[in-house]
Amino acid sequence: MSTPGIHNADIADAFEEMGDLLAIEGENPFRIRAYQRAAQVVRSLPRELAEMADESEYDALPGIGEDLAAKIGELLATGHLGALEKLRRQVPPGVRELLGLPGMGPVRVRALMTGLRVRDRRELKRALASGRLAKLRGFGPVLLSRLQAALAAEPTPPEARRLPLSVAAQYAEPLRRYLGSIPGVTRVEIAGSYRRGRDTVGDLDVLLCAPAGIDPFGPLEHYPDLRELSASGTTKASGVLRNGLQVDLRVVPKESFGAALQYFTGSKDHGIRLRRRARERGLKLSEYGLFRGDRRIAGETEERVYRALRLDFVPPELREDRGEIEAAARHALPVLIEGADLEGDLHVHTDASDGRDSLEKMGAAARARKLSYIAVTDHAKHLGIVHGLDADRLARQGEAIDRMNDERRDFTILKGAEVDILEDGRLALADAVLARLDVVIVAIHSHFGLTEAKQTARVLRALERPHVSILAHPGGRLLGEREPYALDFERVLDAARDRGCFLEVNGQPLRLDLDDIHIKSARDRGVLLAIGSDAHSADQLANVDGGVRQARRGWARREDVVNTRPLGELTGLLRQARSRRAGSAVVRIPPPAALVHARPRVRPSS
Ligand code: DGT
Ligand code: CA
Ligand code: CA
Question: pLDDT tens digit string along 95-148?
Fold first, then answer.
């Protein structure tokens, strides 16, 4: 039996830390790599390991051998990992803390330890001030200035960190299910930034609907994910989950549930504007309801609250006070894209490069998801890219794709590649090779620290190449790990529009890149978006859900996203993109044919 409350994210964290600490200790690279890979595999599993039967099942997972399966077993059974605890005792806490600084992976931390005997922040500060650090290999001027800035700031206490939405969800969804099973509780909603689909959340704001006299907090005392819980009476409680996430819980009666949901969904700015609108109409809006004098005129549902304020229903993703209230008053809110609108996925990897599953398996999984096309976009070979494809291997993959396409009428695999933009803006594959592909993704995977002028020139130069279709993860951030690189986004947008290139909304849970703000600017400028899973295994095709959520936050409609279009229209747009160069006549994007006689789109009831 397993200790309740151990989630895949905890196991992945433990393995990642094992890998880091082994690397600091200068251990065998293969062992380190095994832990890193296992962490990735576990993190992306669609099922909780805790729900699997036994070790033989973990053993069958890719990248998990007997030894790692036993460690998963140990973690699930005891909540601890002996080997990790031993390593933690060996590596001083000050050294481990250095891993949290920008740009500091285990290799650099080890270099600090062995090269300069730096074992904590204080010693690092001294090494930096004395100029000794600048002499160490791998510590360039950009890194030094980032370290300087980070060391000047106080370290963030772990509780003050925001968690990526996908990480929070691993705790939030089981909590939602548990709360829903408590007798007397008729409804559970996780409001706040979580419901608005923000890429990171600060805490969870949970609303329970239950009649007076029910105490839902009693059963919560035994909920294994909760580290602390303090209830004040039977309507309010707050606690801390084992991953450090704070949870605020409130019990609300049925007649106020919609008003409370509206209030606690926020955002704060949206709420302030809404309450002002109520006041202007002689009404009062609070978490208890919308009142005229003492009479509640709305409150049971959010829809009624908005309607009573003479507004169309505002989807939670738009509630950021970015013009949504004005649009709702004018009946001009966009009809936001939905997951079911996607016809295809334009960013998919296979085991030909660094993916886990075969071409056949990725195709079958995409068909099971009711897609009618995917673009297989394995990494092109270049220095530093393991298993990247060269022109020959791409050609052979192309033949395999032709054979598969011949077998089916209802599903098409497009030939593609994900090609690195080199430091100077050249591409890692020759134009003649790219010319044979249907979809060419270009992306930055190195030299993140260039100045804005250089980084922008680099991207613009890449977009000038004749066969480029998509700029992938254009911002370059990794949530919690890497800030976006410096880029003049306006110029990139203009170039993409002139060229007819698409900008990606990458759905990987830690990328979600473009972000919501940039999606909105792209959309407002008429640049088409491509929502891509960037799947490296079949189950990761589900990444598009995060991409769709993000696109909705950026006001994207179905027509703004190129992979909602049927294959014929898509290939037309792809051809158009490749025949243009920046500076030539502006590409006119026709509205999708399907929208001319669109099926009726139902707005949320209002
Ligand atoms: P977070 O937790 O930082 O990711 O962001 P939120 O939006 O979940 O913010 P949070 O947890 O502080 O509060 C949840 C909601 O409650 C917020 O979106 C709106 C409402 N709220 C909280 N504090 C205030 C306030 O001072 N004034 C108003 N009008 N609303 C508030
Ligand atoms: Ca919150
Ligand atoms: Ca809160």
Answer: 888 988 888 888 899 999 988 999 888 899 989 888 888 888 888 888 888 888
The amino acid occupying position 85 is: E
Pocket around ligand 1 at a 6 A CB cut-off: 192-193, 198, 201-203, 205, 263-264, 266-268, 271-272
Pairing of strands 373-379, 412-420: parallel
Q: How far is the CA of 190 from the centre of ligand 2 (A)?
A: 9
User: Residues of the chain with pLDDT > 90: what percent?
Assistant: 65
Architecture of domain 8-152: Orthogonal Bundle (1.10)
> Residue 201 CA: which ligand 1 atom is closest?
4
CA dist., res. 183 & res. 163, Å (int): 30
Q: Where in the chain is the domain with CATH 3.30.460.10?
A: 163-329
Ligand 1: which residue has its CA nearest to atom 13? 192
- Per CATH, which fold does 163-329 belong to? Beta Polymerase; domain 2 (3.30.460)
Tens digits of per-residue pLDDT, 270-283? 999 999 999 999 99
Nearest Cα to 250, choosing from 236, 268, 239? Answer: 236
Report CA(332)–ligand 2 centroid distance (Å): 28
Residues β-bridged to residue 413: 374
Please tell me the distance between residue 267's alpha carbon and the centre of ligand 1 in angstroms. Answer: 6
Query: How far, in Å, from the CA of 552 to the mean position of ligand 3?
Result: 23
Task: Give CA–CA dist 364/378, Å, rounded.
Answer: 17
Q: Name the residue with the closest Cα to ligand 1, atom 28.
A: 268
Cα 12 to ligand 1 centroid, rounded to whole Å: 31
Q: Phi and psi of 601, rounded to 5°?
A: -100, 125
Which of 195, 205, 273, 276 most suits a substitution to test ligand 1, by most atoms within 8 Å of the C-beta? 205
Of 216, 178, 172, 175, which is closest to residue 195 (Cα–Cα)?
Answer: 172
CATH superfamily, domain 345-382+416-598, is: Metal-dependent hydrolases (3.20.20.140)
> Which uninterrupted H or E stretch holds 167?
helix 165-180
